[in-house]
Amino acid sequence: MPQIQKKSVWIISFLFVAFIISMMYLGIKFTANHTAVSPRNSNIIRGGFQLISPAGSIVNDGIFRGKWMLIYFGATRCPHNQCRKDLIKMGEIMKHLKNKASQLVPILISFDTNYDTPNRLMLSMKAYNDKIIALTGGELALRDISILYHVSIKKTKINNDLILIEPYDHFILMDPEGKYKTSIPTRTDTDQIIKTIDTIIQ
Q: Whose CA is closest to 58, among 118, 112, 104, 147?
């Protein structure tokens, strides 16, 4: 092959590889941007999901139609025991909503695929409130739901043997049709959250 043809082939190959790398970079940027958007700044939060319940059965979002959903993204163990504090708060919310509690489904979606097995989820929820439905899934299913609900999956390395999930700092409230209603910072006082939900649910 003449030298000039070899040079042309090399240039074309280089440009093709550069193009592929650029597309991969843009794809990563696109995903990162979409998982970082806060629910309070978006009106397109919604999406179907299929996750695994503590009983090991497949649960999809459709079974909750007709009910409000209060969704918490985290795990059963988190840095600084934050997930424990938030789940206790979620249990208190259900306890004090009284009659309206029957219209609301509290859901924990665990992003800790390594630790939160269905059996662990079943045992853990007993400490908070038996109305809380704990769900998890595979890496791909959880990545998809993080994009649909605009919730970042963040991990913190505690030591060489332990990596924990950083919980999302908002409860997300979805209406009975599966549409996004509002988001409430988890740091909000429990009584104020109860008043907010009580005002929204009629």
A: 118
